[in-house]
Amino acid sequence: MGKLDIPKSNFGRWWNAVLLEADIVDVRTPTKGANVLMPNGYEIWEAIKANLNQRFKKTHHKNAYFPLFIPEEFLLLEEEHFEGFVPEVAWVTHVGDKKLNKKFALRPTSETIMYYMYALWIRSHKDLPLKINQWCNIIRWDTKETQALLRDREFQWSEAHTCHATAEEAVEQVEESMEIYSGVFDDLCLSYLQFKRPPHDTFPGAVYSIAYDAPLPEGKCLQIGTTHNLGQGFSRVFNINFQKEDGSTGAVYQTCYGMSTRVIAAIVAMHGDDKGLIIPPYVAPTQVVIVPILFRKKNEEEVTQACLEIEEQLTKANYRVYLDDRDRYTAGWKFNEHEMRGVPLRIEVGPKDIENNQCLFVRRDSGEKISIKREDLLAEVDNVLHDIDTEMRNRTKKLLEDSIHEAVTFEELVETYKKHKGFVKTNWCGDEDCAQQIKDKLSAEVRGVRVDIEKETLFGPCVVCEKEAKDVVYIGAAY
Amino acid sequence: MGKLDIPKSNFGRWWNAVLLEADIVDVRTPTKGANVLMPNGYEIWEAIKANLNQRFKKTHHKNAYFPLFIPEEFLLLEEEHFEGFVPEVAWVTHVGDKKLNKKFALRPTSETIMYYMYALWIRSHKDLPLKINQWCNIIRWDTKETQALLRDREFQWSEAHTCHATAEEAVEQVEESMEIYSGVFDDLCLSYLQFKRPPHDTFPGAVYSIAYDAPLPEGKCLQIGTTHNLGQGFSRVFNINFQKEDGSTGAVYQTCYGMSTRVIAAIVAMHGDDKGLIIPPYVAPTQVVIVPILFRKKNEEEVTQACLEIEEQLTKANYRVYLDDRDRYTAGWKFNEHEMRGVPLRIEVGPKDIENNQCLFVRRDSGEKISIKREDLLAEVDNVLHDIDTEMRNRTKKLLEDSIHEAVTFEELVETYKKHKGFVKTNWCGDEDCAQQIKDKLSAEVRGVRVDIEKETLFGPCVVCEKEAKDVVYIGAAY
Fold it and tell me: Of A165, A362, B43, B394, whose CA is between 20 and 30 Å from B153?
């Protein structure tokens, strides 16, 4: 296990190093942008999946799996929807040495193939609401620069797609999805802003889009989830009609929402430090690692025995524990490895600890070392993990607060954004031209109006045209 | 919820009907052979995944995810391996409207892309054994007839790939994999034969292949899992070398093993009946469904209350329970639906039951109805589920036994196979020509030598050439 040798302040280089050393992603594939999600990264993804699946189950979502392939004609049927995706679509044109009569796109998202099936499944109001989620790989062959977990050509995601009898129920579903996503992100100790995107940045085919933006160390913001109210745009094209209770028929109202392995990126980027990852305790695949310290064979048997007892005690109390008793590595090597991988709490037991009937806690977040009496162990594990969780939340809350600045005039906006990056809060008239001028000047966009707090009070005219402003919005650059 | 109207004896038509009605697979996609795995099917798949993942965890396998795309040159590098796959390989040739400089295959299996990475990861004996599993979608674009779950162009699977320091450890790993797979299949109440495939039917690039064949109602056998001892064939091509403890270097020894959604096919085909599916109790997503019987509003409140209490009692005891209190369906409709979906046990509570302080158990496997005193409920659920499990195992054991016949002469083989299909046990010299003559005559193959029992005693000369036989083998037709 190597050390990083690159401080997090050098974010670009730290990123690739930490992903490889912490066993998250290996980009050295022969398929640029389609990377390996390595065992530690996959375990974190499985923890995120389990968390989301549990919430989906409680809210009566069902999982299913739809084809990877999208017929070419679907892209023409939904031209508006696919316009943005088309340059990135990968096409299957041949099988063996034979050319196919019609080519197939690899799914850049699954609205069309799913809604084609929904039209077969939905007949009556009794079939509604329909709430289906899919876990799958997604292909968006970005021809520009790729960046592991942030801009991948192949990535894993969850996409949920729902159908409802009324527009009101669709709005309620959007709200349910926001609660679900906030719950997941909260368990991951992430902090983020929740925006309603401006009309010109709404998902193609949607009525409106909600997105979750997390501030990353480079000063850019990462969209870690989105929810769309699709209205009847797709259901009219795909003929998803149903018979209402009164006997009349109509098209369903739809919503969809997704989150991807970008959430792992947010965990790595927001929580990580110069030593590697820090994984939030309540989702960490390994919450506690126990390392026996064997020194000149002193008390060797007692140390081993104590470690086994602690492992058993914590396992019984439902903690996810790993007793690292591998012979072939030194204790120091193990410390580095588990720090790199972000295990929240390390417990060391050495010969002296046996004599004093204690052990040593080492917190991953602060590096703090605490001697703990053996009889207090269980209560202290609970305390410390809880503390780490709180501390991690506080840190990302502060990161988020520190990433927000304000500007009233265009000059201030330019100056503030160039100086601080992150989010600049300002006033906007709602005109796309004004948004475009900001983009041209700063390569940053109007992220939208916040929906996680009450409507904010205007504090000036439009930052660009100086006409009356409509909304307080946040400017930031996206990955 | 429709009824099937097609008896299982009409297997071909029953198959498609039961898959759709039981919410397992919908084949009505615009992408022939790439179907929808529907919510009930997906839940069964998740149960299989959880079962296998748990066994993998205990045996120190790690999950990871590798790219969908395989560079063209890998197919040339491993020509022998890919020869069989090439006619079925789907090629990505374009992105957007641009032709790619080099085309990519969609993985028909992942040896090459995984082993390319393994060569980067393995340096020393300390890195061994390496045991990695991948859950992913697989593309094999069969241009012939497709059949849901049996012959799909896109399907889900698990593929594990291991590396070891010695040939002996690879053999042990093959054995570990066989134990793991048998454990999963056993929990699913499946019965099957375990074969070492003949050399001419060994996985391309492998030293030998072990396969698990289950007899299906049509008289064909379904390969539900395979394990391969790969020796050093791949590691030499991909340069997966390591430094040994003595300082010398060498290529690793490898194994791989996989099981796919074909296991769902085996569950449906082996356990299903004229009413639909029967899901083995220990893996069933819903083990017990509770249906309130409301009749002319009599005792309505008490019935509802009793159902809620039973739900709570069973949930607390860790059963997977569904209280079907949906207003919009009749009790009869619900009975059909849950029978179709194969829920092992139904508990009905009606007005009379309240008066007698009892409820009615209805077993899915036998249809048997049993009145149960409320105070005996928990113990009886345990008993009945256990009984259903035993009964389901006995049934498939009998199916398997009944599928095996014997033949000494070629004439007997032809007659017996044509009459009974399934497996015909006979003697074989080991010559591929003799196997080919059987195939030409019967469209059935030498499945191999059984490895789940002691080596069987020869009971005649080779069934084809009448020269001295080498092995007792089984003849059968594959899907």
Answer: B43
DSSP code of residue B273: B
Q: Could you report the per-residue pLDDT of B340-368, keeping only the tens digit for each?
A: 999 999 999 999 999 999 999 999 999 99
Please state which architecture CATH assigns to domain A288-398: 3-Layer(aba) Sandwich (3.40)
What's the average model confidence in pLDDT over A436-453? 97
Give the amino acid at A296: R
Domains of chain B by residue range: 11-271, 288-384, 404-476
> How many angstroms separate the CA atoms of A48 and A63, rounded?
15
pLDDT of B2 reads: 60
Asked if residues A303 and A354 have their Cβ atoms less than 8 Å apart, the reply is yes
**Minimal Cα distance from B114: which residue of A?**
A36
Among candidates A385, A371, A393, which has minimal Cα distance to A270? A393
Amino acid at A51: N
Residue B37 C-alpha, separation from nearest chain A C-alpha, in angstroms? 5
User: Per-residue pLDDT averaged across B68-86, rounded?
Assistant: 82
pTM (2 d.p.): 0.96
Please report the pLDDT score of residue A175 as a whole number.
Answer: 98
For domain B11-271, give the CATH number. Answer: 3.30.930.10
Measured distance CA(B351)–CA(B294) in Å, rounded: 7
Top residue of B65, B72, B154, B243 to mutate, by most chain A CBs within 10 Å, is B65
Query: Residue A300's CB: how many other CB atoms inside 10 A?
Result: 14
Average pLDDT, integer, range B385-409: 98
Mean pLDDT over B225-231 rounds to 97
CB B134 within 8 A of CB B159: yes
Contact status, residue B24 vs residue B41, Cβ threshold 8 Å? yes
- CATH code that applies to domain B404-476: 3.30.110.30
Distance in angstroms (rounded) separating the CA atoms of residues A267 and A278: 8
Residue type for A393, please?
Answer: R
Asked if the A405-476 domain carries CATH number 3.30.110.30, the reply is yes
Is there a contact between A35 and B98 if contact means CB atoms under 8 Å apart?
no
Residue A437: C-alpha distances to residues A161, A475, A479 (Å): 35, 12, 19
